[in-house]
Amino acid sequence: MTTESDPSYPAHWEADVVLRDGGTARIRPITPDDAGRLVSFYEQVSDESKYYRFFAPYPRLSDRDVHRFTHHDYVDRVGLAATIGGEFIGTVRYDRIGADGRPASGPSDEAEVAFLVQDAHQGRGVASALLEHIGAVARERGIRRFAAEVLPANTKMIKVFTDVGYQQKRSFEDGSVHLTLDLEPTAESLAVQRAREQRAEARSVQRLLAPGSVAVIGVSRSGAGVGAAALRTLRDSGFHGHLYAVNEAVALDLLEGVRAYRTLDAVGAPVDLAVIAVPADRVPEAVAACGEHGVQGLVVLSAGYGESGPAGLARQRELVKQVRSYGMRLIGPNAFGVINTAPEVELNASLTPAPMPMRGRTGLFTQSGAIGIALLSALVRRGEGLSSFVSAGNRADVSGNDILQYWYDDEATDVALLYLETLGNPRKFTRLARRTAAVKPVVVARGGRHTPAGHVVPGTRLPEATVSDLLRQAGVIRVDTVTELVDAGLLLASQPLPAGPRVAILGNSESLGVLTYDACLTQGLRPLPPLDLTTAASPEDFRTALAAALASDANDAVVITAIPWVNEQTPADDLAEALRSAVAGRPGKPVAVVHVELGELAEALAAPQTTPAQGDPAPPAAAPPASAPPASGPPASGPPASGPPVSEAAGRAEPGPGGRIPSYPAAERAVNALAEAVRYGQWRRANAEAGHVPEYEDIDEPGAAAQLAGLLADVDGGAVLTLAEWDARELLGRYGIRVLPALPAPSPDAAVRAAGILGYPVALKTTAPHLRHRADLGGVRLDLRNESELRSSYEDLTGLLGKPAELQPVVQSMVPRGVDTVVRSVIDPAAGAVLSFGLAGVASELLGDTAHRLVPATDRDAAGLIRSIRAAPLLFGWRGSDPVDTPALEELLLRLSRLVDDHPEVIGVSLEPVVVATAGLSVLSATVRVAHPPARGDLGPRTLPSY
User: Fold this and answer.
1) What are phi and psi of 428, to 5 degrees?
2) In a 3-state reduction of DSSP, which class is residue 918?
3) Which of 204-213, 424-433, 753-762 bottoms out in mean pLDDT, i.e. has the lowest?
4) Which has the closest alpha carbon to 356: 334, 380, 336?
5) Bridge-partner residues for 442, per DSSP?
6) SS3 string of 749-811?
7) pLDDT at 649
8) Given a cut of 60, is residue 685 above it in pLDDT?
9) Could you tell me whether strands 258-261 and 176-182 are parallel, antiparallel, or unpaired per DSSP bridges?
10) Interior/surface letters 646-659, b for 16+ CB within 10 angstroms, e for the rest
């Protein structure tokens, strides 16, 4: 379909969506070129569905109908279609109507809406997705309400309307149900939308990780190459479903002991997942074959895409477009593969050689194959099993966001580890991470501050420190290296969360104990004096001391330090067993071991326990496969031609939750991991009761909206307007933020007149851009109590720094002394509005001592924001000074948050300085920038990222 010739065609309405069952569809405007598609679609709809749509038998569409349903002005009449493989599976349209119910144009803000979904696709959430998108289109075109007439027997469509979460009215008139929906998003409609998004995206990942059948496309006859390696790994992992090899030149019935076919179509049975390992120029052919066969998802191992330059990037975009056109999802390209250790599945569709990683409670996502190999190796070496693993390569489709949606309610995953190179959608990621972190730890290592080749997701422009703050606000455990990722994951997966920061230290080395003590202080923990058991301590001594520490109410966690014995050889297994025995008796606190040159101890502690300790819960059952193997048809595979025997689920050990104790070769690594667990536990407890966004009765939201509309009336779409001082002061005042007036003083006489208006004492300061907020350069004179002092200071200021025309001096009333702070808000295109706070002055700016939170900020966010900077003690009575009015500061932050959240036209605010005194505060200067707002993606309909 060509649309470039029609300038009215709204291409920005096109979107890919994930449906309820995990498949995808494309939603786009209907055009005149769709006449044939519409007729074909209608012919496949049942007579009953047609009756529900038109309230009468309507076997076929007339030429007039086809013309009316395919010709739209995209303002008063709009039609959208959901398509798979280029064919319609559902349609929706609205027609603007007036108060009399007849067709109308603006300013009428009501429209009649109607749906039709092909019977074969009903129950997949097609109508719900179409309603979200047609609602967003209607709001864009000035329509605020939908009206719909539905037959009482059409319960499915009534449910679509009633479940959407919009405010609505319902009545029964003339034999039909009349529904009116207010299209303004509500908290309920947003919650409904996000719940549907989570279920759909989680299901789409589950179909990739738990297929009933897998085909590997591109298996060489020689046994060499990526395809053959992937097939062997799948075969040797003990995959429980059907397995097929595809090679167009195959002359044998078996390849690598697996039934082989020349084409996918020749398989003659359903294929849920296809692993593609052919050259990049042949991938489109393979994708088309998969789409025609009904494959649900792809893992594309092939390289030669975004990582190879502009041509590869264009090829990658076409790949995503092609995959989604068939309703499939994609991991890759340039992927390393996926693993699912669930006993019903045992899928290893990756380039990781057999045997399968041990079954465990940790989920792992990486973008880099090399990092994925390193992380898998480190986790296996240290005794940690996996629930699932996804290495997404260029992540052109499935990303870390999708995997978080899956892990959120995956009972087999207790800890989520992610190695990310970019945060394509920080707003969505932090939203998903916050929800997931409320029920299980989310640990993230970021591998780069810039978008690498191949990762076509646009990166955020936010500084790294800001991103880290936003992640921590969401409860994410942010680490800097893959080593720290593994260290933290090991402790979180095997130990309970600490109840507080108090740490007991015991071991057979006083020096190692002191190092551990120092590391605890560095991390902000509260260590108890180390207990030295001496170098003569036996395993029984360790057991006794550990049991006592675990029983004590004086600590929340225990770190054990161990060095080799000098005079006798004590088996490491004995010490490991002694420590396990103590933990089994008191399992409520986390325990970590620091060992020096005791590799045998680390191995013994990491060894899986096939019989969990008394009272350990049994591992939850994994989710069932996406589709069961066919009851009949070709066999899954023949006997293996070579390689190790296929492993059985019953023979694979899984560590019991209380059976392992994490060990570390350095005190700093153990303490860092423990400190992250302490901070995460504190976050969990603090967020057990959600914060709230306060309501202030004096806020004038309509007045601010009207003022902004007037200010932007003559501003071009992409332009940014910096408000004049009086406009900024008026806008902020509507939200209860009072900015202290500053009167211009272009001459000494003008300064005296200004002081007369304001009243002495006054301050004289420059406002020139190069001197603004730089009291250290001498551009401020304070506490001027009379005309003589004012004139003297004016002469001194202009003599030292320049002429009045250059300095732009102003006079301002003196305010109570306090701590000078800076409050800002800025809009990032990807993350949205960000609220920032720090102390004023070059020192804080130089050291980057600024904290950040996403808007809208809650009362908890505001309190945490002012306490999270390193210089926060200055606000709370440092070195005997008087504490300042932090509640007033928190209120200021919350009012500013409300302003920028209520009015996306406000794209930047800087309040500097804000002087916080012992009672109250004063905003001495404000800069406000406004522009026509961009679309808020987080409030719009569900869509997949468009690359």
Assistant:
1) -70, -40
2) coil
3) 424-433
4) 380
5) 416
6) HHHHHHHHHHCCCEEEECCCCCCCCCHHHCCEEEEECCHHHHHHHHHHHHHHHCCHHHHCCEE
7) 32
8) yes
9) unpaired
10) eeebeebebbbbbb
Tokens of 500: 């507080």
pLDDT in tens, 745-784: 999 999 999 999 999 999 999 988 877 666 667 788 999 9
Q: Is the pLDDT of residue 652 over 70?
A: no
Helix, strand or coil, per DSSP, at residue 97 = strand
Cα–Cα distance measured from residue 820 to residue 780, given in angstroms and rounded to the nearest whole number: 14
- The C-alpha atoms of residue 346 and residue 622 are separated, in whole angstroms, by 11
Q: Which residue has the tokens 């902020």?
A: 732
Q: Which are the contacts of 724, defined by CB distance < 8 A and separation ≥ 6?
A: none
Cα torsion 223, 225, 231, 232: sign: positive
Q: Could you tell me how far CA 838 lies from the centroid of its own chain?
A: 26
Find how far residue 607's CA is from the centre of its chain. 34
Alpha-carbon span 529 to 559, nearest angstrom: 12
The helix (H) or strand (E) run that includes residue 169 is strand 168-173
Q: Which of 939, 938, 940, 860 shows the shortest CA–CA distance to 401? A: 938
d(CA 541, CA 546): 8
In order of 203, 236, 238, the CA distances from 343 in angstroms are 19, 14, 10
* pLDDT tens digits, 267-309: 999 999 999 999 999 999 999 999 999 999 999 999 999 888 9
How far is residue 350's CA from residue 339's CA, in Å, rounded to a whole number?
Answer: 7
d(CA 776, CA 45): 76
**CA within 13 Å, CB half, 42:** 21
Q: List the one residue out of 417, 379, 427, 351 whose CA is nearest residue 676.
A: 417
Token pair for 204 = 């789409």
Q: State what percent of residues in the chain have pLDDT above 70.
A: 90
Q: Residue 858, SS3?
A: coil
